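Before the break, one more example. Copy the sequence into your notebook; we will annotate it together after we see the structure.
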Amino acid sequence: MQIVPMRDLKDTVKIEKLCSETKSPVFITKNGYGRLVIMDIDCFERIMRDVYEAKAINEGMNDLENNKTIDGNLVLNEMKAKYGF
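Here is what the structure looks like once it is written out:
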């Protein structure tokens, strides 16, 4: 994690290089307090993919806990019967 003061945002090449090299978000502070987060697109996509995966896992776990699942073999047999596999 890199922390950069707001005044350093003027040097966009430096900030871009920092994002690229660290492959993680760069935190921007103003008067010692966090104000912004900057990241390159690869980092953003990686984080969003992790968020979507975690959400899907949580939804699946909730389905298991609430008995909202169907036996896989039952579904396959029904599909075979319906579509003649």
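The chain has a mean pLDDT of 94. The helical segments are 12-22, 41-65, 72-83. Try to locate both features in your own notes.
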